[in-house]
Amino acid sequence: MNNIITITSERNDRVFIHATEGHFVTASSHINYYVGTSDIKHNHDVSVDTAMLMAEYYVSRGIEIDTVLCLYETQALGAYLAHELSRPTMMAPNPDSNIYVLGPEFDTMGNMIFRDNLVKMIRGKKVLVLISCITSGKTVERAIESVSYYGGTVVGITAAFSAAKEVNGIEVNTIFTQEDLPGYKVYDKHSCPLCDADVPVNAIANGHGYSKFEY
């Protein structure tokens, strides 16, 4: 893998991601860059500033959020985001908001499920899906299906980095896009030009991170 590069947000220079060029395999696709969001998820100061940027989208549009559904270790970021969304604004000087923050559980088939004591936080709620990175959008699609199954409605999708502009007709609110990482490509796992060119796989990646491929 080549050297790591750092990409900083134009709106806040304290918010950043890392990118490493190579050949990476995810559950549904192959990508030529691994995008690292560990600081956004696990560094307190970076998370707080990131949450402020993410919240602007919903506050400026008057989109109400009841629940933040956090995927891939984004619970801390989700809590900061919920805090920002519940702040008084000119449009809602006295907000009567009680925003839930939770993560899904997965059954043996990989489906997202919610225990009986948590269903009340989904059913009848306006849900915001929070994820660190979106490549193909498949994980977010599964989240939308699960929320719908339990009686909730996804009204927003937020990511630190997204290669997709929308998922299931819902615009993705993202801080970083492919324009911030020129050359970033997402390939179908069955038609990957890197594989066709016999470029070795560097690592297996998902929302938690990556594991180097051992030959």
The main pleated sheet reads as:
6 strands, mixed
- The CA-CA distance between the termini, in Å, is 15 Å
Judged by helices, strands and strand pairing, the structural class is: alpha/beta
Helix content: 25-40%
Rg (CA only): 18 Å
- Average pLDDT over all residues: 91
Oligomer: single chain
Strand content: 25-35%
What is the string of helix and strand elements? EEEHHEHEEEHEHEEEEHEE
What global shape is seen?
globular
Helical stretch tally? 6
Q: Total number of β-strand segments?
A: 14
Low-confidence stretches: none
Walkthrough of the structure:
This protein has 215 residues and is an alpha/beta fold. The chain is built from six helices and 14 strands. The strands form three sheets. Strands 1, 2, 3, 12, 13 and 14 form a six-stranded mixed β-sheet that branches. α2 packs across α3. The protein is globular.
Short overview:
With 215 residues, this protein is α/β, with parallel strands linked by helices.
Provide the descriptors you would attach to this structure in a database record.
215 residues; alpha/beta; six-stranded mixed beta sheet; 6 helices; globular
Q: Would you spell out the secondary-structure blueprint of this structure?
A:
Elements lengths: L3 E5 L7 E10 L3 E8 L1 H5 L1 H18 L5 E4 L4 H11 L14 E3 L2 E2 L5 E2 L2 H4 L6 E9 L3 H12 L3 E10 L3 E2 L2 E8 L8 E3 L4 H4 L6 E4 L2 E4 L3
Parallel strand pairs: 2-13, 4-5, 4-8, 8-9, 9-11
Antiparallel strand pairs: 1-2, 2-3, 3-12, 6-7, 10-11, 13-14
Helix pairs in contact: 2-3
